[in-house]
Write a structure and sequence with these properties.
single chain, alpha/beta, Quinone Oxidoreductase, Chain A, domain 1, oxidoreductase activity, acting on the CH-CH group of donors, NAD or NADP as acceptor
């Protein structure tokens, strides 16, 4: 029998998560049933939304049940099939979670073309993070050429795509990231017009210099002090796509200092969950994959090795230690 190593959530975090919240299990895989497909997961995606699922609180999705495999997207290859539509060698993505193998009836598998786009990119720029960026920018911010768009966590899996798409739309793009190295990458490699290192302080002054004509669209991934600073520079009738507020994921307060500016500037602020907009996924995924294949959309990955290192890599992601998309290689 084949052993399927997997990471279980075994306790709820109190504040910042720790390694003790997770457990490495190694059950045997059952025999494949009629109509089922066995997939060997090559890559596992780690994403900030997983932190919210660890809490037993009311949210847009049910909490992760204890003593079960942590939720997560995977990319891999069919290695055995008793399903007529799937053959060994087919490359697929699915939501198998933090484990080395997955068994499916085929309904949750999506076929991917690894001849055009690297497999791991289907968990990042050509996957859910990319669609998140695409939807928030195009459907909520809806930028016009000549406008200024700002994005927090600009070097991350979502923010990096937001900025590149905004540049393609003819906008001035200002990124906000943590550290000189990340900011240099955002400007020199991704092509943003400017990037502000929030760790250096003086956010208000830096935003004034980087966006002298104010900000028309803002893609929010962080919240907290970063959002407070951006609010001071929004133009009238600006739009905010509220994707995440990682500053408050561990229960820290993230109260706004100047909420009246939302009214004063008649700001449109819309929170969104990209899985509630599945109708746009085919168009977005096609555009993103085409851009990557053409070398017009760049991305960066931080790669951990082995399922046993997924918890530590996830905790590092929450602390901002990753650069670009955080992935775990499972083979």
């Amino acid at each position: 029998m084949t052993i399927n190593r997997q990471i279980l959530l075994v306790s709820r975090p109190k504040g910042e998560p720790t390694l003790e919240n997770f457990h490495l299990a190694a059950p045997e895989l059952p025999e494949l049933g009629e109509g089922q497909v066995l997939v060997r997961n090559f890559y596992l995606s780690l994403d900030p939304y997983m932190r919210g699922r660890m809490n037993d609180t009311k949210s847009y999705a049910p909490p992760q049940p204890l003593d079960t495999v942590m939720i997560g997207a995977t990319a891999g290859e069919v290695i055995e099939s008793r399903h007529p539509d799937w053959q060994p060698g087919d490359a697929v993505t699915a939501m198998f979670g933090w484990q080395e193998y997955g068994i499916s009836d085929g309904s949750n598998l999506r076929r991917i073309d690894v001849a055009r786009v690297p497999m791991s990119a289907y968990l990042g720029a050509a996957g859910m993070p990319g669609v998140t960026a695409w939807y928030g920018l195009k459907r909520i911010i809806a930028p016009k050429a000549g406008e200024t768009v700002a994005v927090s966590a600009a070097s991350g899996a979502v923010g990096s795509v937001v900025g590149q798409l905004a540049k393609r739309a003819g906008c001035r793009v200002v990124g906000i990231a943590g550290g000189e190295h990340k900011c240099a990458y955002v400007v020199e490699t991704l092509g943003f017009d400017a990037c502000i290192d929030y760790k250096a302080g003086h956010l208000d002054e830096a935003l004034r210099d980087a966006a002298p004509d104010g900000i028309d669209g803002y893609f929010e991934n962080v919240g907290g002090a970063v959002l407070d600073a951006v609010l001071m520079h929004l133009n009238a009738h600006s739009r905010i796509a509220l994707c995440g507020m990682i500053a408050g994921y561990n229960g820290d307060p993230i109260a706004l200092k100047h909420p009246a500016l939302l009214l004063t500037n008649r700001v449109r602020l819309e929170g969104f969950i990209v899985t509630e907009h599945m109708d746009v996924w085919p168009q977005a995924l096609t555009e993103l994959a085409d851009a990557i294949a053409a070398g017009e959309l760049r991305y960066r990955e931080t790669m951990a090795q082995g399922i046993e290192n997924a918890p530590a890599a996830f905790l590092g992601l929450l602390r901002g230690e990753n650069f670009g998309k955080q992935i775990v290689r499972l083979v």
